[in-house]
């Protein structure tokens, strides 16, 4: 039995509230159970120096956790003067995941930045950030009225792991902190894989174990894609 009482292939409740803030071109509050992330998309009519004059845009991301998003207060990284390696890795993952489904030439010479701020953490903050960032990006691009839609597919992400010998979907904190193996899968709605991060945490896994986790990830992402569609109306 999972600590939450969920079935092995059962997601936590998914809540997506679009247009959550007033000023950003796109915004969303996304919840995977008790994990809550605010994502805003900001459009700027400029590109990084390495893209100037190339006729294409850029999609990037920043990620952070509020000091009391977890059980104990953490110091703001700004107060430390530098980002942690974990933060840098997660925001690069978010940016890569979104760029994989965006035609940057169709976007034109503009940059869209996705700011993902974790309000409350209970496992799966990076996967909730990616899934919410797609919604915020979709809403922001809709405001541009471009002749060609730069977004080619939906993208969603979910965590899976092996807990007490059983592959399970959408790990919450009690499972994530003690799973023998945990992974994050980033998938598109046409069944392609953008990224799979699967790590043994004290016990190795075999090929069949990996495939079982991937099958669970497909189940979870199908639910997320449906929630995204409801949030953006398509």
Automatic annotation (TrEMBL):
Judged by the first EC level, this protein's enzyme class is transferase
Q: Which domain of life is it from?
A: Bacteria
Establish whether keyword Transferase is in the entry.
yes
Task: List the PROSITE patterns.
Answer: RIBONUCLEASE_PH
* The entry's keywords: Nucleotidyltransferase, RNA-binding, rRNA processing, Transferase, tRNA processing, tRNA-binding
List, alphabetically, the SUPFAM superfamilies matched.
Answer: Ribonuclease PH domain 2-like, Ribosomal protein S5 domain 2-like
Single GO term (MF):
tRNA nucleotidyltransferase activity
Q: What does this protein do?
A: Phosphorolytic 3'-5' exoribonuclease that plays an important role in tRNA 3'-end maturation. Removes nucleotide residues following the 3'-CCA terminus of tRNAs; can also add nucleotides to the ends of RNA molecules by using nucleoside diphosphates as substrates, but this may not be physiologically important. Probably plays a role in initiation of 16S rRNA degradation (leading to ribosome degradation) during starvation.
What does the record note on quaternary structure? Homohexameric ring arranged as a trimer of dimers.
Similarity annotation: Belongs to the RNase PH family.
State the name under which the record lists this protein: Ribonuclease PH
Query: By which gene is this protein encoded?
Result: rph
